[in-house]
Amino acid sequence: MFGSCLVSLTAPASPAARAAPATTAADVKAMLRGISASRIEATVRKLAGFGTRHTLSDTTSTERGIGAARRWIKTQFDACAQQSGGRLQVELDSFIAPPNRRIAQPTELVNIVATLPGDQAASVDRIYIASGHYDSMPSNVLDPTSDAPGADDDASGTAAVLELACAMSRLHFDATLVFMAVAGEEQGLVGSTHVADEARKAGKQIAGMFTDDIIGNSRSEDGRVDRSRVRLFAEGVPELKELPEELRVLVRTGGENDTPARELARFIKEHAERAVPDMKVDLIWRRDRYLRGGDHAPFLNAGYAAVRFTEPAENYHHQHQNVRVEDGVQYGDLADLVDFAYVAQVARVNGAALAALALAPAAPRAAQIETTKLENGTTLRWDANPEPDLAGYRVVWRDTTAALWQNHKDVGPVTRVTLPISKDNVIFGIQAIDKDGNASVASFPTPLVAPAAPAPTTATPRP
After folding, report:
1. Higher local confidence (pLDDT), 281 or 251
2. How many domains does the chain fold into?
């Protein structure tokens, strides 16, 4: 069960793990170069070859249906685990999904979860997740028997996550990485909701979640091909009837563009574009596309930072369609329509970001901006990080209308600093930096207001 898997991640790193060779920037570059478009193609074609992977399809056949698909995916993760010397831990998360408008009766769903525990005791409980969904659907979401090859949606994402699990499990990271192939996405994000809810109930520290969903098409409907871009969707202030106080503070201070999901997205763009220079990460300040949803949504709902990768040029003739040719137009999500080299590039974008996150310290906690008096300078404070290899901290800032950080200043191993920059004019962030130069996601500082003066007391005269 994924619940027990998550519990196992709370164990401290072993002495052997702490003595593991440190992963260098050169190691990460080599890992990214090793991501294979041909292996991704083989995975996508194998998954499409199961005919349908509808959540309610056959679970007993060895050749067709979601049961055959999940068993095959498990064997692939197991092979990667063996190559890692057992460091990659593979488990099945099986649960009974209750009926909903797309599931007529209680149904067993199975997520396949591969965990690479972090090597640093101070960081092992910090978790980053990469996920794709392995179920598929034809034109009718309630039809479990018609062919639904689901090559782009979402064998492409599943193949990328599997490739990343195999490649990254050869390296060592401070924080924990989890690679998932989830079911029930087309039935209402059921598999990912189970994972997110169990993690929230267990108090797990999921510091970032990526879903890779529909990442295989580089050709737009007008025939133009663009292999150089991927969209990254990141939510701002969520749509809630009652905003919790931390979100009210964001809105009051102009930080609605600095939610944890958007700080995560900025980090991904910076590190991915640096490591994969042929790719541009287009930040989309929305939870998702109109009329669509993805497996990052349950994690957002559970209070975690989560984002979605999706190709920039979707072709709706190939999504959620029965396979057919109609009026000379090919419909259906076929493997021959997937650009496997493009999927490999998106996988490299994921890998670069995941490696940077898992090698870096945690984002500083309790970041605050002092607002106790009127002044033109800015004083920031934060709690000290626990990592043993911490070198210090970096203050970043940008114009209030800018999407990305524009300036920075390294301030050393302090937890309070004053800068001659007006807090009224810019947005600040605080990053932790380790001795290898790895920088964390930025933390947005909230106002520290002077405490209210105590009420005057009156001494009671003695009789």
Report:
1. 281
2. 2
